[in-house]
Specification:
Largest sheet: 11 strands, mixed
Strand order of the largest sheet: 1-3-2-6-8-7-12-13-11-9-10
Strand content: 5-15%
Oligomer: single chain
Structural class: alpha/beta
Helix content: 25-40%
């Protein structure tokens, strides 16, 4: 394949993104959007004329001729160079697409000729580095083991985005191997790019395997991003970055061409700053893929335009249940934000049924992990078998590579999960079938029975605790999560910004629904978003130390010490059951 552009070579190529006049004419977009003025950052971060610009706003500017895709792409590339690859070094982008400007220019030419492919025409999107792209970029899942390997084709959803006119801007950093390598990993670390940071507070963690796909759009390095989830890694990094993340029904979006963990739970989905943006990207991703049999079931259930379900009054008349047991009670800060969100649901017209706890959720974890270990061994071998220009063919090969390159790959944590998976018999293991049936039954019945018993449109809960400080020595510090039932059942889950702990640490609330209920969840999520407007752009604080921390304003919905005291006096105290260390 032609030469590739790495992080290091990109920094040396001064003409790639820093051409004079890259932002010429962009001020008109800022005027039209009304919300793109430079933010007062704690760090010395350059202002950006497209800060918090939505896909619809950018598209309108291109339709009017006030902006071109090439100018927009150049602006994002310049910002990536200034604050991600250098400057404060967010490390959310592993690699930029060396052909991005050429692709954008070609899409501009199409627009001038009267051909507009849809709302994503000319819109720059970053994709996680486990989506195969048949171009001059690598696809490595963050691992040095796959550097130089050639993929046979674009992942199906990448092909769908290209057809929709999106500019694939580059690859986002991730937790190496989608966080399925070690029991002591730090979310956001990969051998290729190092540790990804949170744009809100730099020494805090971006969470989950889709960490770069959370940090990058939150930091306004792209219009949106693609992530993957096996259990929590779309919704958790979205929560930590004050994003909207849509973890779709399994089968709504294809997984072919995506470095896998486990076919019974893996999904692909959008991570964006607004519900409308996420709905726009989701519609472009759908379609039946012969290489992913699960997508055949999406016939009659998928839509090419999910924005038609956006309703600012979407909560009025809805019945929403609150899932507390096993989720609330572990993080007073998250609890305080969730209580405010529950009050908002009622204020915005929903009937709140509280509590509506899901049964038997503490029994899912062990059989789920058995399923993931067995499926990973077989699924990763199937993926590797199609690669060219690599000796990596099995999980055993990857383990041997890490051992031979321990200084670079095993410096901070090991490969205990790899070893556990290799020790299984794969999907032929006697324990696999029973574990799969048990985990699926418990997760599916838990959601279905709760929705039916209380006649609910959706279940709401805390997405995750606030971001913790990154700890490469001891690994992640997860406190709580609500991702497992929807992940194991294959049901949809949408997280929306709920508020900020101490003014700067994002916490999301999530809506869980029936299979194929994305239209309903998007309607509810949009109503909540429009009624609360909880998100604010990051200020890139270095830490929450006494000298550095300055609250954004006195009216921001927060969870602080006073909230802790009040929360502990409420009647909804619950016992928290153990959760897996990772979000993958």
């Amino acid at each position: 394949m032609p030469g590739r552009v790495s992080r290091r070579s990109f920094l040396k190529a001064s003409g790639t993104a820093g051409a004079a006049g890259a932002l010429a004419g962009a001020g008109t977009v800022a005027n039209a959007a009304g919300a793109m003025a430079a933010t007062d950052h704690d760090h010395d971060v350059p202002s950006f004329p497209f800060e918090e610009a939505t896909i619809a706003e950018l598209g309108a500017a291109m339709r009017s001729g006030r902006l071109s895709s090439r100018r927009l792409t150049q602006a994002y590339l310049r910002r990536i160079r200034r604050i991600d690859l250098s400057g404060i070094q967010l490390n959310s982008v592993i690699e930029v697409n060396p052909d991005a400007l050429e692709i954008a220019a070609a899409l501009d030419a199409e627009r001038r000729q009267g051909r507009v492919r849809g709302p994503l025409h000319g819109i720059p999107i970053l994709v996680k580095d486990n989506f195969a792209t048949r171009d001059r970029m690598e696809t490595t899942a963050g691992s040095l083991a796959l550097v130089g390997a050639e993929v046979p084709r674009d992942a199906f959803v990448i092909r769908q985005l290209r057809r929709a006119g999106a500019v694939i801007l580059g690859k986002a950093n991730l937790s190496e191997w989608a966080n399925f390598r070690s029991t002591q990993s730090s979310s956001g670390w990969s051998g290729r790019a190092g540790q990804c940071l949170s744009p809100y507070v730099l020494d805090h963690n971006p969470c989950g395997s889709s960490s770069g796909s959370g940090t990058a759009p939150a930091a306004n390095l792209c219009a949106g991003a693609l992530g993957t989830e096996t259990d929590g890694s779309i919704v958790c990094p979205s929560s930590h970055a004050a994003l909207v993340g849509i973890k779709p029904t399994l089968g709504l979006t294809s997984r072919s061409g995506v470095v896998p963990i486990a076919h019974s739970q893996d999904v692909t989905g959008p991570m964006c700053r607004t519900v409308a943006d996420a709905a726009t990207v989701l519609g472009a991703m759908t379609g039946v893929d012969p290489r992913d049999p699960a997508t055949a079931e999406s016939r009659g259930h998928s839509h090419r335009d999910y924005t038609r379900f956006l309703d600012p009054d979407g909560l009025r008349g809805a019945r929403i249940g609150v899932w507390r047991e096993g989720v609330f009670g572990a993080s007073p800060e998250a609890d305080a934000i969730a209580e405010a969100a529950i009050a908002d649901l009622s204020r915005l017209g929903a009937t709140v049924v509280d509590p509506t706890d899901l049964p038997n959720q503490d029994q899912i974890g062990d059989p789920e992990f058995t399923v993931l270990l067995c499926e990973f061994k077989d699924d990763i071998a199937a993926y590797l078998s199609e690669l060219r220009n690599t000796d990596m063919r099995t999980l055993a090969d990857l383990i041997a590579f890490n051992e031979a390159n321990a200084e670079r790959e095993l410096r901070w944590f090991g490969q205990e999960i790899f070893l556990l998976s290799e020790a299984t018999g794969g999907t032929a293991d006697p324990a696999y079938a029973e574990a799969l049936a048990t985990s699926k039954r418990l997760a599916t019945e838990g959601i279905d029975q709760t929705l039916a018993r209380f006649d609910l449109d959706a279940i709401v809960s805390i997405t995750d605790s606030p971001p913790w400080t990154t700890d490469l020595v001891n690994g992640d510090h997860f406190l709580t999560s609500s991702s497992t039932p929807s992940a194991v059942s294959g049901y949809p889950n949408i997280t929306v910004p709920g508020g900020f702990s101490f003014g700067e640490l994002p916490v999301g609330v999530n809506f869980i629904g029936r299979r194929w209920s994305e239209p309903t969840l998007i309607k509810l999520a949009y109503g909540f978003e429009q009624g609360t407007r909880a998100r604010h752009a990051p200020r890139f604080l270095p830490t929450l130390g006494v000298k550095e921390f300055l609250p954004r304003d006195t009216n921001t919905r927060t969870g602080g010490p006073a909230d802790h005291r009040e929360r502990r006096q409420t009647q909804h105290q619950r016992i928290v059951f153990p959760l897996p260390r990772g979000r993958f």
